[in-house]
Write the structure tokens for this entry.
Amino acid sequence: MYGLVDVNNFYCSCETVFDVGLKNKPFVVLSNNDGCVISRSNEAKALGVKMAEPWHQVRKRHPELRYRSSNYELYGDMSSRVMSILSAAAPAIEVYSIDESFVELNGIADRVALARSMRSRIREWTGLPVCVGVGSTKTRAKLANRVAKTRAEYGGVFDLETLAPKGVRSLMAEMDVGDVWGVGHRLKTRLEGIGVKTVLDLADADSEWIRAHSSVVLQRTAAELRGVACLPLELTPPLRKQLVVSRSFGAEVQCYDELRESVMTYVSRAGERLRAEGLLARVLSLFIHTNSFREDRKQYSASHAVKMPLSTDDTLALASAADYALRRIFRQGYLYQKAGVMLSDLTPLSQRQHALFVDPTQLERRSRLNETLDQINLLYGRDTVKIAASGLRRDWSMRRNQVSNRYTTRWSDLAIAHAR
Amino acid sequence: MCIQLPVLQPTLSALRRPYVVCPRPQAGFPSPAGDYLESTLDLHDLLVEHPAATYYLRAAGDSMSDAHIYDGDILVVDRSRKPARGNIVIASVQGGTSLYVKKFGVIAGKPALVSCNLARTEDYPPIFLTEDVQVEIWGVVVGAVRKF
């Protein structure tokens, strides 16, 4: 038995906790570089603002609409609070994304009561509203969550398995096939074309027929809808295959030095993340490209992969590989819009291979240097100490015009409690 | 024989809870304190009972000075605590844009959010909790931190 707990309008809800003036107001949170809408308050939804709509279009229709740039420092911290509350309340949890988790509810006599207490505890401890859906499979729990979210009469908690089989069928008949976990917009259109319009249509469809018309994945989804559990809880995340750090620039970048600064910053970030996850990388790929939507301009995109002599987590070694790659692919005379670094061929640090001609004490010293860098940056804030090549100016860095304070991760950014 | 006092500790939890690394003596007489080791006191343990529910806010203003909360103090706020009469709380008034630090008290039999500055009672009148004034208690203040 599974529960799916997810936070309503997660990014917007995080903002409202610390900025109470946003409560019950229409507002949205925008993606990196303030490009698109990625979270909407209920009141913004009521205005007809759509998910992923470009901000410049929304703004034309609603010039008064308030917005925030995304504040991932805050969202990450609030997410880990929610997950830690859930871990303490349920026998096992799988963190599925920043704002949703599956919880195991096997052997729980009163699932609805437990779900309600999780919901109210998260509300009290974090100020965030959540909905809980319960079902005998993950796909049914997801579906139940959808019901909890859209039908106010259930008070944010819905257990599909409390209904008689007949009740489940009539509920499924009322729901759109697009409400099923894993059925995206395109698949939905295709399914409707072959007569599968409701959730019940999919659950009732012949297994082999689904496989012939779609895929094994959808076949499994349909089985899960019927109550055959095919997807267990993933308690340990699978080992990462690659690590990507890339951003679009706030303003387009033309000159080599600026591009190099941005690349070096991404390398530092990638190095930090490698070390935090206890991984080593063997291959570094660098990519750069211009804005493909500007058809009026000359276009260029390129990437280059460098295989390093040894698997490493050393920022300086990664930096020299990236430097080499950038010199290979950089072309003068283009306006670059995005650059990124991808690390692949990853192995756990515990399986480090030693090389014949590398002095192990040298490796040790280097790893202590990196550790010290990470500690200083953790203590005194990101980029207190960094590689000089990443530059001091940052003309290219991300646009986050309306970012709120990092209320929970920086002493300088605490919310104010007025004593007046 | 030396005791190292590392400036930087290797992990996040160690950072928050610094301790002295005491290398085991290679030879000679073992430490008579060896059987009595306890972990060093850590302010975090004293102030934070529920880490997932604890937030820090900064006080601004002098309306709570008689409750020993001064301008610039860092308030330790535990949202898991049920607010009780007499607690110092963080609260917001419906429709307002600010969070306030006030005492949750009773005046003339009526529940109210009260300031604590006897010298300036005129400037900081209590907010009575009535049908018309919807107040939300954000969390209970369990401590204040001040650096000199």
